[in-house]
Please model this.
Amino acid sequence: MKQYFKYWPSMKENIMDDIDRRILNALQTDASLSNHDLAALVHVSAPTCLRRVRALRAAGVIEREVALVDPAKVGAGLSAIIEISLDVQTVEAQAAFERLVLADAAVQQVYRVAPGPDFVLIVQVPDMAAYHALAHRLFAAHTNVRNVKTYFSTLRSKFEPRIAL
Model:
């Protein structure tokens, strides 16, 4: 990461300028852009654009680049938002439960929250039978789970992973 500081001194303080924001906004819309197309879109030279994108990656600002898949078109059409309360809320007990849910492929997002439940999970499964199997393996079989409250999505009106810059 330090090699990029000579090209991008502000990254030492984690400060982004307007060019960085334009690059990130463009990549959040379409991460498949070639460096040349991205540079043209944000009005910088291709070498400058490449250095900045590499610096953003090295600094962890860009965590990864992924393809967004329509769940209904790949047979995972049931979305659930699940609140979990644990009986024992020690650091070890929370970490053990977190490891359990992080390892499950159907669990897309995990949040520790307060106040209220201990965790909120976002889950994507094919159908109700798959949800019941998930509930059994993650919640019913786990002795520290006190309460589970699940909300099933009837319509996804918006899904936007973009962060406003």
Remarks:
- Residues 46-58 form the longest helix (13 residues).
